[in-house]
Amino acid sequence: MRNIPIFALAIFLSSCQKHVAKLSTNDQKSEKIKTLFSKVSEENIDYLQETFSDSMEFVNPIGDKLDKAAFIVGIQELYDMFDGISFLEMNGDAVGAEVETVTYDNGIVWTNVWNTFSATGKYTGQKVEFPFHLSYQWDGDKIIKEVQFFDMSVFEKETNAKAAINNTTEKVVINIEMSVNEGYTKTEVEAFIEVLSHFIRTHELNTYDYSYFISEDGKRVTLNEKFRTSGDLILHADKFENGPNIDLFMKIFTFESFIVAGNTTEALRERIKAYPIEYRENLGGWIY
């Protein structure tokens, strides 16, 4: 029994060492964030310039880190791509949307937002709506960091449509028709394609579409490839020619047609001039 007070004291001391935080939904910082979203809807960028610190760090949903200048450019591009930007009301009822500010006992302050973005794309003409979560870290009355969590596909789709209309996309598409040489079975071709696909995934992050299609008789293969820039296709050529698969590739396949489409650079054309390529320029539509 004499050990009970000592045990209780140990629990008390342990609990005293735990960090605690204070949460509020109607404090000054939460209200500033509400105003910020209102200003975004009004396409008023001055309030953002004032509220965000000049030394702020912006982290987008894929982990890219940008400074204030790049962040402001991103907001301006948002206005260029969408009309009628709106958000749900954040009124403290925690239904649908909310803002809350958390003050930790070490002095760090974050304001967290969950809401829904609604707008109409200027280039696709499509109405869009998606949920998002944002977190803002404060230094005094200035935001020093913004971290975003949401699906970026809506913005990518609108960016693609804009690039198509203005014919400014840097993406390059390859379509290759090949015949399978004598002595190679459909099973052997499929096994080799699996090796090639693994190599591309491992070594070429910006080769974002790499697709093989084979005929029923196993004698003809179509290869479609997409690259974000001409530079990425140059990297692909370097990896292919200096990699472990080129010899077997050339033994298995014979090129029947080799089309490279898009706004290709002179550097790319010079790099791949040894191949029997026919170039095609952009005419319409868009490239995902």
Structurally, the number of domains stands at 2
- Assign the CATH topology of the largest domain: Nuclear Transport Factor 2, Chain: A
Which second-level CATH architecture of the largest domain applies?
Roll
Strand content: 25-35%
**Whole-number average pLDDT?**
92
Task: Specify Rg, calculated over alpha carbons.
Answer: 27 Å
- The poorly predicted ranges are 7-13
Helix content: 25-40%
Sketch the major β-sheet: 8 strands, mixed
Q: What structural class is derived from the secondary structure elements? A: alpha+beta
Strand-and-helix sequence, N→C? HEHHEEHEEEEEHEHEEHHEHE
By CATH reckoning, the class of the largest domain would read: Alpha Beta
Number of helices: 9
Task: Give a description of the structure.
- The chain has nine helices and 13 strands.
- With 288 residues, it is of the alpha+beta class.
- It has two domains: 19-166, Nuclear Transport Factor 2, Chain: A; 172-280, Alpha-Beta Plaits.
- The strands form two sheets. Strands 1, 2, 3, 4, 5, 6, 7 and 8 form an eight-stranded mixed sheet that branches. Strands 10-11-9-12-13 form a five-stranded mixed sheet.
- The termini are far apart.
Q: What are the key terms here?
A:
about 290 residues; alpha+beta; Nuclear Transport Factor 2, Chain: A; Alpha-Beta Plaits; 2 domains; eight-stranded mixed β-sheet; five-stranded mixed β-sheet; 9 helices; 13 strands
What's the arrangement of secondary structure elements?
Elements lengths: L2 H14 L4 E4 L3 H14 L4 H6 E8 L5 E2 L1 H14 E6 L10 E7 L4 E13 L5 E13 L2 E8 L3 H14 L5 E9 L5 H18 L3 E8 L5 E8 L2 H12 L4 H7 E10 L3 H6 L6 E3 L8
Parallel strand pairs: 2-8, 12-13
Antiparallel strand pairs: 1-5, 2-3, 4-6, 5-6, 6-7, 7-8, 9-11, 9-12, 10-11
